[in-house]
Amino acid sequence: MDRKWSALALAWLLASDGVAAASPEAGETVALAGQGSAARAPGIHVEQVVQDGLTSPTAIASPRDGSGRMFVIEREGRIRVLDRDGKLLPEPYYSRDVTTADTEQGLLGLAFDPAFRENGRLYIAYSGAAEGERHGLVLRRLQASDPSANRFGGKDELLMRVKGLVANHNGGDIRFGPDGMLYWSIGAGTGEPQDHPHATATDNLLGKILRIDVRDGARGAKNRCGETGRAAYAIPDGNPFAGQRGQCGEIWLHGLRNPWRFSVDADGAVWIGDVGKDREEVSVWRDGMPRDLGYPRCQGSHDYPSTGATDCPARTGTAGPVFEYAGREKGRCAVTGGIVYRGGNVALKGAYVFSDSCSSELLVGRMSSTGRLEVASLTSGVAPGYGTIASFGEDEENELWFVNHLSGGVYRVR
């Protein structure tokens, strides 16, 4: 493959199912991810909405309640609100004590119930600080008495706790899928890959993506491995290990190291950015594929420890990545999983948009006929640095937003 994408090749990459992207200027090129510097793409604009007032934001989400608001979480334990005009409100929506002893700990995940406008429910995932919550990830349900309010008031209940996470590699993202289930990414924990045989074991919740039913009156299998609080959750019958003695019924996918950010597309496909030790990878899981994504036996398509072979998924029968790159090359250090774009910009329609939290590129990919993700590297407007672009979210119009953990900036892609 040529080292540079021509203008016509870029137009194909950024087009959606035959809809042409805006015509680039003659001679304009965009570097293939990992092969040169990023360039601006025609018809794609990044706008900085918030410059000051946020400290270490880790995620952004919309309540999709007609208010036009966006909610941002800060690592130190606060939820902040941006009004319809993108103005950051001065008072936090909600705050709590969390553990931030490691830079990868803190308030990590935020998800709104699909019926938030009616039921006022939102969920947070964080590193526990209180007695009985330490050394693990905690999932809580916030039940707002007034869903339209910009300050939280209502019930605050423990839903679930996963033990055994004491420092970094926590994962911590939470998302609702089109099936109404809540998905939660759990990292394998601190240490080297050889310390993580539990990532592929199905009697342990570390190194997994979980799927649980948080609806009122939900019923399911009883083989729960998570510690529960007063707010109950159920194991959906469709989970692969539901009802199996000695297995964790919450598990949906396994064999992951640090699934820091993932998303569930409208078709049920799970897109995962898994931060590796030696290689960064993007995987897509669809119904019928192996549920084991290979770690720690594989990192990307490579053995761990490396033998030079690149047929690890085929040989192990695990699901391989659709895109991977070596860590600590081209200014990259950690993949930030993104979202399949469903907004109104035809140049991005249907593309998977993600990033790397050191190089700060806007990485735009489409699946090729060979089952690989063809990726272009575009400039995001964020300077490279350690721990920059941390997470992507969608607003009510399905337009993409992202947060800069390093500077506190909030950006919108149009």
TrEMBL record:
Pfam families: GSDH (PF07995). It comes from Luteimonas composti. InterPro entries: 6-blade_b-propeller_TolB-like, Glc/Sorbosone_DH, Quinoprot_gluc/sorb_DH_b-prop. Keywords: Signal. Residues 55-356 form the Glucose/Sorbosone dehydrogenase domain. Coiled coil: none annotated. Gene3D superfamilies: TolB, C-terminal domain (2.120.10.30). This is PQQ-dependent sugar dehydrogenase. It comes from the Bacteria. Residues 1-21 form the signal peptide. The keyword Signal applies. SUPFAM superfamilies: Soluble quinoprotein glucose dehydrogenase. The lineage of its organism: Bacteria, Pseudomonadati, Pseudomonadota, Gammaproteobacteria, Lysobacterales. The keyword Signal applies.
